[in-house]
Amino acid sequence: MSTFSTGISAPFDAEDALGDIDWGPLDKLVERYRGHGIMLIQGAENLRFTGEGSAPSAAYDTAYAVWMRRLAQHLSDQGLAYSDWAIYIVDEPGLEHGPRIKYLLEQGRRIKAADPHIQTYTDPIVVMGPDDLERAAPDVDIWCPQQDSLYRIWGPTPDMHPRERLAIMRGDSSEVWTYECFPRVKRLSPLGYYRHQAWLAWTLGLNGMGFWTYCTSPDNPWTPTKDEYLLVYPAATAPSPASAGRRAGTAWRTTRRCGWRGKRWRPLPPAESPARRPPVRRLTPSPTQSFRSGRPCPRSSEHGSALRI
Length: 309
What we know:
Elements: E1 2-5, E2 10-12, H1 24-33, E3 39-42, E4 47-49, H2 57-77, E5 85-88, H3 99-114, E6 120-122, H4 130-136, E7 142-143, H5 162-172, E8 175-176, E9 178-180, H6 190-204, E10 208-211, H7 241-258, E11 260-261, E12 264-265, H8 289-292, E13 307-308
Helix pairs in contact: 2-3, 6-7
């Protein structure tokens, strides 16, 4: 999976006519990430009004539909199928208690009205409750809810409704992933934070997982900063506890799914299949448990990655 901004804008005028588009920046990104999983494209709303003042709403709506169709056609000309990419509508709807949810609903409808085959993606947080998820569901193809909205390491809260959330998202989509983005990850337990997410994804039957962020930061991760999220550090020489925890968790899930017989991978017998698997016990401490037990958490130094399960 790769996430990037289009790097382009589409000009339009008061007559809702779309001008010439420089596809160069987008083509470079497509070529770079081609073959590395689905591409999540941000910045698809980058329409630029060339007239004076604000654009008439009717002109914007018409130009947006033309822009979406032209984008889909251009990516098709580049050899990409609809299943190879999706529009990343908005990041973390619910984060600002309303505006991002409204934007998700409006843009989702615009995209599907323009071309219903275009896939859409979003990553709701716990503030976006079941009612809003229900409203957005017809126009979202790929869900990636924050893990905190499905399972809280310090215990459930009344605003979670995890079963209802999953039922809504699965009702309209076959792609339901999860992610987490706790700050100061170097101070968290690799077992409780990184390995735990792979186990949770398997337990809930999700087909994707990831962390914010792989490598995006303007700061030097080798020096203390206010918020630390990175999995990849520059000039790493050995796997970090964070990376090792994430890899161990996904390896454990693969072992459970495929089974280990001697030195060869073989499918599990029917009684051990995911559909009939026994309940999974809680095996991990919480990310902060090492502090409560008095043992300092190891510091992260290398990398992991987002992946499909």
